[in-house]
Write a structure and sequence with these properties.
Pfam families: YmdB. This protein is α/β, with parallel strands linked by helices and about 260 residues long. It has helices at about 10-30, 50-60, 75-80, 130-140, 155-165, 210-215, and strands at about 1-5, 10, 35, 60-65, 85, 100-105, 110-115, 145-150, 170-175, 185, 190, 195-200, 230-240, 245-255. The chain is globular. It starts with a strand and ends with a strand.
């Protein structure tokens, strides 16, 4: 079994890269399950109904989110019908949507979980460690995938060390910079950050002039997505269905 994951999609440049490259990636890798992170897909923050269905139309089976999940108020109007959307379990408001999804793939029940880290993150109401322990104890699945949306590599690595024996794939998101620490951690495919799909000449997909002005001169700015040629980052893993453990993990990075 193969699982393909595509990192944070930032605005229209990221969506265009997904539309352009995901079909070819799926043809090459032949994944049984494809998951993308869409929390920055709508103008850099959040997701809309139109973009939700657009990402599914590009070839995503499920869409994970992050700290910007509810940045677009429109989501609250359609989140109950969005049965392929996975929002962070521990992000307020916790009563909207689902943070755990179960998919049947090749006769196996794959549990997919989205969690936010606590470090430098707003609106996180519960420890991701407590949430994950509770999910594993109460939900039945053969394999577990986690998108851990966090700011620091230390928190992500700690989470992976705690849950590697019970998860088959733990992927970090949020920092938009792909890390080179992909590894098989006791049979769990792990990477601290899968990277982003967004404009290459940017600061994390955002207009660099805007970020510099805000940083140096405290000029109040809006979140403007950078334009121009984009990159696509992600990771895929191979899982032995007999043992339920990962046997391979590989980074994906397509630059302009």
């Amino acid at each position: 079994m193969r699982i393909l994951f595509i990192g944070d999609i930032v605005g229209s440049p990221g969506r265009q890269m997904l539309q352009q490259h995901l079909p070819a990636l799926k043809e090459k890798i032949c994944p049984d399950l494809t998951i993308v992170n869409g929390e920055n897909a709508a103008h850099g923050k959040g997701i809309t109904k139109k973009i939700y269905y657009q990402l599914l139309g590009c070839g995503a089976d499920y869409i994970t989110m992050g700290n910007h999940t509810f940045s677009k108020s429109e989501l609250k109007m359609f989140i109950q019908e969005a049965d392929r959307l996975i929002r962070p379990v521990n992000l307020a408001p916790v009563e909207l949507g689902e943070g755990v999804r179960i998919a049947r793939v090749n006769g196996k029940r794959i549990g997919m979980v989205n969690l936010c880290g606590e470090v430098f993150m707003d609106n996180v109401v519960r420890s991701p460690f407590e949430c994950m322990s509770e999910i594993l104890n109460r939900t039945l699945a053969d394999l577990w995938f986690v998108d851990f949306h966090g700011e620091t590599t230390g928190e992500k690595e700690t989470f992976a060390q705690v849950f590697a024996d019970r998860c088959v794939m733990i992927v970090g998101t949020h920092t938009h910079v792909q890390t080179a620490d992909e590894q098989l951690m006791r049979g769990c495919a792990y990477i601290s950050d899968a990277g982003m799909c967004g404009a290459f000449d940017s600061i994390l997909g955002r207009d660099k002039r805007e970020v510099i002005e805000r940083t140096l001169y405290q000029i109040k700015t809006r979140y403007t997505v950078a334009e121009g040629p984009a990159m696509l980052c992600g990771v895929w893993a191979e899982i032995d269905e007999t043992t339920g453990r990962a046997t391979h993990i590989e980074r994906i990075q397509i630059r302009p």
